[in-house]
Amino acid sequence: MAGRSGGQLLAAVSAAAGQHLAAASGGHAGAESMTTGADDFAGLERALHGFWLSSREGRASRGGAAWLSTLEGLMGLYFGRLEWSFSGMEWNPGAYLNFADERTRPAADLLARVRVASPQRVVDLGCGPGNSTGLLAARWPGAEVVGVDSSAAMLAQAARSGVRARWVEADLNTWVPEVAYDLVFSNATFQWLGEHRVLLPRLMGFVRPGGVFAFQVPENFSAASHRLMREVAASGPWSEKLRDVREGSVLSAEDYYGIVSPLARSVDVWQTTYLHVLDGDDPVLGWVRATGLRPFVQALEGGERAGFLEAYRARLRVAYPKRADGRTLFAFRRLFVVAEV
Q1: Which long-range contacts (C-beta less than 8 Å, at least 24 apart) are formed by 272-275?
Q2: pTM for the full model?
Q3: Residue extents of the structural domains in the chain
Q4: Is the pLDDT of residue 14 over 90?
């Protein structure tokens, strides 16, 4: 195991996941004919999650730190937790992987509610470096899977990931596919795009009749983690530089229902608050630094950046205190939409 390249290991995990589905349902044909998304995908999620946990437990005997680093990078990539944002912004895979398991669940929870019997074509919008595309490829081994992203660097890494997919560079605001898809899927991407009342109907137009449009977005912009971010940005000597920094944004669940329901046969909208139990010092800072904090941090340099981070860190410690057991609780709300067309 320790001698495998990243692509080989990810391919092996993907194959194992496909074998799990096949065994559970009578071969690949049976896997593709599955119609109860939540029940069917639960087995796949358990298989992959179990592989991840067993790998961590066995790391000492399977090649040490170098092997663990490779595996954690692949699992974080494979599970599709990466909430990567604006084109041109720096992406830090190490920061994401500090919370790889916690970032695993939303994409899997979304995909578990997708009911498509035997899709021919599946697309992952905002795929980043391969993220949830790997889950799509594993669930439907017979489908053509496409990942779309605006970053050439992200797509280059996706191409090295071992995920069975075709990668397309495009801006989702103007992307027009050559063919329609049975599933248009997006995990934690649309919050970085504007005009959802225009964007979502346009993207739904690329779903074939009988297909599904499914997406998940974070819904925590009013949480203390983001509110304090804005307060610190507006209150220090860096305020002028940060005045025009753009955060992600989302609409309400009711708004999304109103947007997609006229174009769908059925709509499933739900919200989930994950209560993450985080270890270490300043874990909430570590979490948001890999996602929502990046536009602020990357707009500053040197002493201003350090000062901003220290001021923000101090406020986070009050809002998210470390408990007696040494852990910090971080509530994170997300919004999910699955529309059958």
Answers
A1: 272/106, 272/109, 272/333, 272/334, 272/336, 273/331, 273/332, 273/333, 273/334, 274/102, 274/105, 274/106, 274/331, 274/332, 274/333, 274/334, 275/329, 275/330, 275/331, 275/332
A2: 0.73
A3: 6-340
A4: no
